[in-house]
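S.,

Sequence below, as promised.
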Amino acid sequence: MGRIAEFWGFTRTQGRVFCLLFLSPRPMTQAELAEQLDVSAANVSMSLNGLLRWGAVHKVYEKGSRKVLYEAEHELRKIIRSVLGGREQQELQDAVDAFTEAIDVVKGETSKRTLTAEEAFVRERIQHLETVTRTSNRILSLLLGDGRVDVKRELGER
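The prediction came back faster than expected:
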């Protein structure tokens, strides 16, 4: 699980903490997690904070106790939606914005003259990158359940 977590951009310890909580039939304390995983309490604390931000784990409070317990989100689709929606979607939008800005710069610098073959080639390639990135972001929105996309139309196919 640690390697899978690293693939998705999380730390190995975050993956191990999540996995231990996911496989545990009961919520666990930070100290129990550190002991079971044989890692420092500070490492577990940082891992839990990250996992809490992404909705991968939740705090649980027992009645009459001051202990903070943690349990894993059992619905993996919620975690995937949170991670993809919060991180990857923003990266794609930032890329679309950068490509759009690059297109505007090229248009501004060449608006009063005919483009050279190289400039036309570069502009076409940037526009292609912008289109593919914008389409990818819309497809991601569709997968996350908050949008519709017509891939053929987005790619200029009829």
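Strands lie at 28-29, 57-61, 68-72.

Coffee later?
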